[in-house]
Amino acid sequence: MRKAALALTAVLVTSACGAQIAPASTTPASGYPVTVRNCGADVRFDRAPSRVVANDIGITEIMFALGLADRMAGYTVDHGQDRGIASSPWRADFERVKRVAEDVALEPVQGVNADMVFAGWNYGFRETTGFTPDRLRSLGIASYLLTESCRNGTGNQRGIMPPLEALYTDLRNLGTIFGVRDRADRLVEQYQRQVAGFEATLPAGARPKVFLYDDGIDQPLTSGRTAGPQEIITRAGGVNVFADLNDSWTRVSWETVVRRSPDVILINDYGAGADESIEAKKRFLLSHPGLATVPAVRNQRFFVLPYAALVEGPRNPAAIVEFGRYLASVR
Hints:
Elements: H1 4-7, E1 9-13, E2 20-24, E3 34-38, E4 41-45, E5 52-55, H2 57-65, E6 72-76, H3 82-86, H4 91-96, E7 99-101, H5 106-111, E8 116-121, E9 124-125, H6 133-138, E10 142-145, H7 163-177, H8 181-199, E11 209-213, E12 221-223, H9 228-235, E13 239-240, E14 249-251, H10 254-260, E15 264-269, H11 278-287, H12 295-298, E16 302-306, H13 307-310, H14 316-330
Helix pairs in contact: 7-8, 8-14, 9-14
């Protein structure tokens, strides 16, 4: 194990997200220091991190979309996401950069001498496991929190801004941190044009009601208004039936799903084992007696998007277009 005191000095910033630390040296690199606002905290970097560990497929793809594969010591993604990696536009980067573990933890992070971890609350960071930004700070390792995962001040509820704005915020922040802000701005402009261009084609009239089904037998996990599916659904021309929930990914009851009577069910494809297969999820929805009267189930209006397209990440704009074309076909 490396000794953090030998590797890094620190700049501390405290916030509701916990104190964070950025790598520093006695002489800032050219163009540095830079400071970004992340989950309510001002975080300063005296130089660009060069050994980043990114956790989860969407977060890792943000790094790749910015052309930052060469700044990474590795990524952590469970093997249930192998199908998502195979379909990734950045598959070549996944093959080039080391997968250091399936689950992010201190041991693999320290094992590759990481100087920053890019993760989020419930995207790797959890108090229950002891893997938190505060713990990393104590070891001299910086952290950057996925904006979709920022806690909003009510318990552990997450989400402080609209989901696409969270993506654009992270792209701009990381562009600043790594000295590629021009590249980040161009990417944001490209995504904004893609989304706006599709929205301009949407017909007037009633919008289909959509329920995002992530997983769950007794209680389904779905998307409130601050998770990626909120804007994937709304900008595609639908209405998220749980847009009133001020949270990102959250549990609801099947009784509430029935009362809200969705026209379409958007299914999250984890790409994992048999119990998480799309076929298994469809069989469950079709066999659930309480859902028989729901229009989406009665008409078998199911649409599938991969996990990497539904969590915050650079596949979100294309997912809007893809799902929007489906919704247009069922209006």
